[in-house]
UDP-glucose 6-dehydrogenase (Streptomonospora salina), 441 residues
Amino acid sequence: AESRSRISVIGTGYLGATHAACMAELGFEVLGLDLDRSKIDSLSAGRAPFYEPGLEEVLQRNLANGRLRFTSDYDEAAAFADVHFLCVGTPQRDDSDAADLSFVEAAVDSLAARLTGPAIIIGKSTVPVGTAGRLTKRIAECAPPGAEVHLGWSPEFLREGFGVEDTLRPNRIVIGTDSPAVESAMRELCAPQIEQGIPFLVTDLPTAELVKVSANAFLATKISFINAMAEVSEAAGADVMKLAEALSHDDRIGGKFLGPGLGFGGGCLPKDIRAFMARADELGVEPALSFLREVDAINQRRRARTVDIARGLIGGSFAGRTVGVLGAAFKPNSDDIRDSPALHVATAIAELGGVVTVYDPEALDRAKQEFPDLRYAHTMLEAVRDAEVVLLLTEWAEFRDADPDELAKVAAQPRIVDGRNALDPQHWRDCGWTYRALGRP
Ligand code: UDX
């Protein structure tokens, strides 16, 4: 039982770093591993390599009390614990929509080959259904004789920006496994959450893998549903915000993830629905998920529509026109710019000849690295200064709370496209702004 108090976490990205820190917070001894030395150095110094509210406090507290350490050495991780969580990334492949499993496979190979006794590996990465089954065979081939390895899959549902909260108090815990040893290890490791009454579901491996991708597919579908209604509302002169509000009072529908606007981006939803379709194709059930093709298309159309509304506002052409963009991160409370709708729109306008200046409270450094040709401002006012049209593309609180009078003083023309339905149209109009939003008259 003593060894159960020690775990390793392989991969220290958004998921792994948060998981490692939170498991230490819950009282376990944790060794986090990543081959990226710069991440390890940063985490060991109590700095999160990305913006995640609350994470650094948890990191620092548990580094100080000695429950949390980081390493790049697989030998150390293999020897440290007998339960290992796999948290490496599964990005979209360069050559197709499928998930790139090379990091998962490399991690499993590296770990399994170094095990010296029985061990449990629990995958948390988002993987195509069937992956865990294949990994079971792969592990059996790599692991030395005597090292009996049991595999489980426990998908992670954390949202960036709420990573600590979601990890300490998830809506549910799912563990897929055929092994009673894995189930009992998970029950011990999740005891603090089970005691709080958080549902704990045991499934087979493929079901656990599917829970994650189907949850993300559902969320993406819900967003695209309301964005499809926004498209219709625009054509019909209806107000999708009122529509969404009215729908949300039906508790079978609910109001969450029913926010119309520029749509979803980030490192999860877009790639996960594409990888899910690719996997359905391989399984011979492609028609079952063909609706996700529409979900993706609706989502992409919102970006094009946002560009069109802004172009319309300035008389039909962006050539040489000054454009202020508020937001670069794919959503507020994150500095993640992977598949960011905001930067997609900003670059599209720049390609059409617009002189685009972007401001974001947290994501500027990453944006500059990835899109060096855009202009960047270090304050909201600077981005709006001299702009002939302003676009709000990520709904940071700083933008929601912005004073329209103050911004009107520096803008060349008080025109705004609210890509996230984050502002009060009446208030902005009263302050002299030409206000346009997605899905509203
Ligand atoms: C998502 C899932 O929520 C999480 O459970 C999973 O583990 C990983 O993927 P995340 O990508 O961090 O999390 O962000 P989320 O808060 O889900 O937002 C995703 C995107 O949808 C963002 O671009 C957001 O702006 C957009 N969104 C969300 C909307 O456009 N409308 C909404 O109503 C809600």
